[in-house]
Amino acid sequence: MTGSPVLTVRVNVVGLAFAVDVRFEKIVYDVFENQGRTMTWQASSLGTQGRNAGNIMTALSQHLDKSLAEYLRVNEAACESR
């Protein structure tokens, strides 16, 4: 298996309720030299949108901001060397 990391964003709306799920997956290797894709970060939330898409966008924005901040924190050295 080869490939780049994947950021998956899912938004589901049912009636006035919504669910937002953000996941970061990447290729990992185990001690037996097997490889596979696994989720290394996730954030999700449920809420009510009251016919206002802004509520959904706010939840999504918060998750993406948190994801980026945590990615930069754990990859600081690699990001600085570029």
How would you describe this protein?
With 82 residues, the chain is α+β, with helices and mostly antiparallel strands. The protein has one domain. The protein has two helices and three strands, in the order βββαα. The chain has a three-stranded antiparallel sheet with strand order 1-2-3, with helices on one face. The mean pLDDT is 89.
Write the topology of this structure:
Blueprint: E1 6-14, E2 17-29, E3 35-48, H1 53-74, H2 76-80
Antiparallel strand pairs: 1-2, 2-3
Per DSSP, what share of the residues sits in E-state strands of 2 or more residues?
35-45%
Q: Round the Cα radius of gyration to an integer and report it.
A: 16 Å
Uncertain stretches: none
Shape: elongated
Please give the share of residues in helix: 25-40%
Count of the domains = 1
**Mean of all residue-level pLDDT scores:** 89
List keywords for this structure.
82 residues; 3-stranded antiparallel beta sheet; alpha+beta
